[in-house]
Write a structure and sequence with these properties.
Elements: H1 4-11, E1 23-27, E2 30-33, E3 38-41, H2 44-47, H3 56-68, H4 79-90, E4 96-100, H5 103-121, E5 127-131, H6 140-145, H7 149-152, E6 162-165, H8 170-176, E7 181-186, H9 202-213, E8 216-220, H10 235-238, E9 244-247, E10 258-262, H11 282-297, H12 300-321, E11 325-331, E12 334-339, H13 344-353, E13 356-357, E14 359-362, E15 365-368, H14 376-391
Parallel strand pairs: 3-13, 5-6, 5-7, 7-8, 8-9
Antiparallel strand pairs: 1-2, 2-3, 4-10, 9-10, 11-12, 12-15, 14-15
Helix pairs in contact: 3-11, 4-11, 12-14
The protein binds pyridoxal-5'-phosphate.
Pyridoxal-5'-phosphate binds near residues 103, 107 and 191.
């Protein structure tokens, strides 16, 4: 058999510590390795496979569009792009869409839009306030927005115009705001930072502050959006509307797409201000349209709330048995289990051995983000494996 890890280390830049598993096939919430062994997937392509792996409606949409028109210059109108934008607008509080290829690209566009708005409406204000423990992507500007020194230090000097302040602290945002501030950029709940959930009133207070100052609220819903937390967009659960919202990850259910949405009054890009060769690609847009339509028509939000609560209760039930669990937190199907020591990697390996894929989001924290279409049976199966893995790691 080919030694894929060896070839990987020979030819691929070493930017990620891989889990020793080569995936060759996926269906629903399951994936298979090259020897035919099956795994239950609670990583879901990093919160991407919203309808699971290779869902027939997405596969059909991709195949049909690939046979029809694969790519066109954005100088021309293409129908999948317009249909997707219409569906996004009709189901959100935003009015206009720009389509790109990834989360970082969507966030770059959001910051450019906020800066352009600042030039036109806020006397040239350009600074964006974001928070510690956030994650906004890997481009240089998004590394500056991402309030985590481990991502920033290797790349100094970082682009100017970003201030990181404490998350879940409205006073920190207030003190950082100056006449140079054009926007505050936040995740409704922080995913990569460890599934950190703010106080119920935090987003509303930030919204009020932004309104008072006339600055913009950018919500990065790249991880939380498209039903991950049990509503189509997490802002709905906080009763707050952003001026700009970014999406990616789950939007294409596995196809690479990013989107930047904005209110009409904020949509100040003029022709030539922004662009992307592959942004709005017909095939990825067809996949995202099929995903979003399926999610809306089949009340996937309801499934996420029901099954997410069931998973959460199961995990919380472990706390009495395993005293070394210090916290179980999350919303919908974005859940973290925290421990009193750095055992997440060894738990991940034990789960892998037993046929369950989980994510180590921090050395002491596991994260679960399965496809949004999973049912109770799959949760039961995952809970059995986790129970066994936790039983073996008492400390
Ligand atoms: C909240 C958030 N924003 C942005 C990104 C970056 O997205 P991408 O990796 O598609 O550039 C991520 C990725 O994890 C994310 O979770």
């Amino acid at each position: 058999m080919t030694n894929w890890p060896e070839l990987d280390s020979k030819y691929i830049m070493h930017t990620v510590v891989r889990v020793p598993l080569t995936l060759v096939r996926g269906e629903g919430a399951r994936v298979w390795d090259e020897s035919g062994r099956e795994y239950l997937d609670f990583v879901g392509g990093w919160a991407v496979n919203s309808l699971g792996h290779c869902h027939p409606v997405v596969v059909e949409a991709v195949a049909e569009q690939a046979r029809t028109l694969m790519q066109a210059s954005n100088q021309f109108y293409t129908i999948p792009q317009i249909r997707l934008a219409e569906l996004l607008v009709k189901n959100s509080c935003l009015d206009k869409v720009f389509l790109g290829n990834s989360g970082a690209e969507a966030n770059e566009g959001a910051v450019k839009l906020a800066r352009r708005y600042g030039q036109l409406n806020l006397n040239g204000a350009y600074e964006v306030i974001s928070t510690f423990s956030s994650f906004h992507g890997r481009t240089l500007s998004m590394v500056a927005a991402t309030g985590q020194p481990k991502f920033q230090k290797p790349y100094v000097p970082l682009p100017a115009g970003f201030l990181n302040v404490e998350y879940n602290n409205i006073e920190a945002i207030k003190s950082a705001t100056t006449d140079k501030t054009c926007a505050v950029m936040l995740e409704p709940l922080q995913g990569e930072g460890g599934v950190n959930i703010p106080d119920d009133n935090y987003l509303a207070e930030v919204r009020e502050w932004c309104d008072q100052k006339g600055i913009l609220l950018i919500l990065d819903e790249i991880q939380t959006g498209v039903c991950r937390t049990g509503a189509l967009f997490a802002y709905e659960q906080y009763g707050v509307e952003p001026d700009i919202m970014t999406l990616a990850k789950g939007l294409g259910s596995g196809m690479p797409i990013g989107a930047l949405l904005a209110k009409d009054r904020v949509s100040v890009f003029a022709p030539g201000d922004h662009g992307s060769t592959f942004g709005g690609n017909p095939v990825t847009c067809a996949a995202a349209y099929a995903t979003l339509k399926y999610i809306i028509d089949n009340d996937i939000a309801g499934n996420v709330r029901k099954v997410g609560q069931y998973l959460m209760e199961g995990l919380k039930g472990f706390r009495d048995k395993f005293q070394f669990i210090t916290d179980v937190r999350g919303r919908g199907l974005l859940i973290a289990v925290e421990f009193d020591s750095d055992i997440a990697q060894s738990l991940l390996m034990t789960c892998l051995d037993k046929g369950l894929l989980v994510n180590r989001v921090k050395p002491d924290t596991l994260r679960l983000m399965p496809p949004l279409i999973i049912g109770y049976d799959e949760v039961d199966q995952a809970l059995v494996v986790l129970d066994e893995a936790l039983s073996g790691s008492g400390n």
